[in-house]
Amino acid sequence: MKSIENVSRRGFLKVAGIASSSFVLGMSLPLTQAQAKSANNTVSHELNFFVSIASDSLVTLVCHRSEMGQGIRTSVPQIIAEELEADWQKVTVVQAKADKKYGSQGTAGSASIRNHFTSIRQIGAVARDMLEQAAANIWQVERSTVKAKKHFVIHNTTGEKISFGELASHAAKLTPPDSKTIKLKSNSEFSLIGKDVKLVDLDDIVAGKAKYAQDIQLPDMLIATIVRPPVVGGKVVSFDASQALKVKGVVDVIALKPRSIPVTTNPLSGVAVLANNTWAALEGRKKLNIVWEHGEKESHDSTEFSKKLAKKVNQQGEKVASKGDVYSHQYNESETLEATYTVPYIHHAPMETPAATAIVKGKKCTIWAGTQNPQWAKGNVARELGLEKDEHDNIELNVTLMGGAFGRKSKADFIVEAVELAKASKRPVKVIWSREDDIQHGFYHSTSANYCKAELTKTGSADHWISRNAYPPIGWLWNPEAKVPSDNQLALGFGDIPFALNNLSIEKHAVDSFVRPGWVRSVACINNGFALGSFVDELAVKAKLPTRQMWLNLLGDNRHVDPNKNGFKYSNYNLDLLAHPIDTKRMKDLINLISDKANVEQTLPDHQGWGISFLRSFGSFVAAATKVEVINNKVTVLEMHTAVDCGIVVTPDRVKAQMEGAMIFGLSIALMGEITVKDGQVQQSNFHDYPVTRINQAPELHVHIVESDAPPGGIGEPGVPPVAPSITNAIFHASKTRIRDLPVNKVFTI
Amino acid sequence: MIKITLNNKAVTLDVDPQMPLLYALRDELKLTGTKFGCGAGQCGACTVHLNGKAIRSCITPVSAIAEQAITTIEGLADTHGKLGESAVQVAWREFKVPQCGYCQSGQMMSASALLKAIPQPSDEQIIEHMQGNICRCGTYTRIKAAIKSAAGNSPTTASLTTEATQHSSGVEFFDARVFSTDTQGA
Q: A399 touching B, CB under 8 A?
């Protein structure tokens, strides 16, 4: 984010929604018009990242990050309000539109707080400083004798106080200080951070009033449904619109422009049916009789492909990181363990399928979409419309709530579809994806194979270790020649192995891609975490040690691990490695905490077992423990725990909620999550064949949050990676059956 | 023309009789609190009440509900008819059940139908009744707790439709523009 400037002095206040505001503070310039909280959607009002204070003391805070259930529309304003010394009861929140002036809006990688905590605090702190300065000026007292406290500025000696509302117009006339010169609160001074405040969207959701992208309604709007090529890279040869056009309510049938590989995040092309209502559009699409040319990806069979990947990782690969020598060592076979793990394609399946609405008039475009990355989407739309760089602000992109996303809605393909069709039809168009569209045309977590080999030492640890993986890399979306994951992707629970090893080799393999790969909640930590967490448990079993002890032994002494020393260019989730170290003490503390809290070493009845696992990801440390029962080949998950050390906690109940959600998400991955591809086409279509966890499969959940003053880590994703291996480890301890190939329902009834 | 009573008001629908109620609610009446999740009766996001019982509106053609009473999340109310204050909704807020919130209209409609039929459900009855409603965010533990709390607080929870009398006013109450001015996040 850029420097903070007082924008009210530049005459930006004649705006809808904050007409009563007299003090507006934005992170950057220039502002044009504020976003109206309840304005007509078709009128363009823009607002920068800011704090505004009305004369009645109502504080309006902009949330520039996208809400998908993680609670960011509460947590970001909560952080600003903390430093502002605002009374949460007097805060309202408006959602930012897509605008680069906000700095990063890409809501992905669990990054909102871990990467932007300080800059978000500075917004509030600068505003607070100006209010304090205004009060000192009015009272004609030393600046140091006044202090903001809960929506007032108070004079230390007289106890006199002035409300934020009364100060707002005076503060607006001041030059904002350099944010770096403003002292932020010490952690002990926090009164909102670390407290559970009222959630911004809760009342609307419970009343059924919350608006998601699917809910946008515009006058004269058409609803569009698209039949896309069944195989990635496929093309329409012919179709018959005549029968579809006979369906009452169908207005038009439009062939989308052909697209080719690299698929990027563009639409997949296909044929759209546009109608006055959803039902007509869905009925119309059944009658299109499309003939497809499938293209070269038709050869893909995910079952055969998975076997190939497993074979690959049993051979030496290309070096990612290394230390010592693992290849000339003479392994003692009876003490050596090798294992290959596979994870299938996995899909996000958010409850709200992708949807976007667009109006295109010449070079002007207005969009409503649930997007994790508003600015990226805007760039994609600009390219679609052929806009020049200086014309990007012709696009107004309104960010709605998302009914779940999990990474899917980082990609703007569905938004570009709406723009393409709105342009072609010259009417407002809402593109809606059916569940079948969602499941069959996703950006999937890549099917993968991981291999681990280690030799047990006499002290119940290991000193020779090989890790390999092979999976289609996300980079293929943009570069058809990309065959190996980027270093950033390899940093996800793979190149950053934290064990005290003198001999280590981490290797990758080159792999072809066939379906669109994408980021699914915790990304490659899903497969890398599954392999690591499973293998540690397997080593523990072989060494006849409790799994906790094997983790502690492998982690070794308290220290900060630096993967760069093994020749791996380690990005640490774009976090400073000094501020966010790979701290083995925090890891061991957490593994001990989960083991004790869940009592995983208790004696259990026959057919029951505990499993634990751990992974540090996205700057946070998470351990999971699961208790299962396996009777008559049926797995029942009885109890699950996660322990999380994410540094400073902003909104504790939402951290807890994310951990609860991660356990259920991980349960789906472990037990039942599998997309298969045959003849290049996804074989699943809806929740009957792509099942996700239901309430009858949800166990008792417990979350343990470690109190910490460390800088905040991520929270949306880190809960997921340790969950699946904790479940399969538990299954082993209950049944002696080791699951190395997910999902569990290939072997057991669930 | 199909006449129904919707959230206590008489409504006439001029749509294809085969159109599922979900799309009539969302596209024609602009009542978007009821959500699309699967279109196949598999996920429960579209749950509404038909004469007080939970149904999946995405697979219920409007022809099947003629002359009957439908309640949506927008009509859910406490026993005095106060909208948004049903025991289930109060409990949902207390336990901060929602994450993304998208499935929660359906969850609350299912839960309130359960409590109407079984005012003090057992854990097994809750699970049995609620397993048609998927929550991808994984709020199940809180859903269970909230239902138990709602059962304790108000065993006689009822939805508006089943108690209130019918009015003659039509769909203008649900004018699209009224809703579009209330757009979340826009």
A: yes
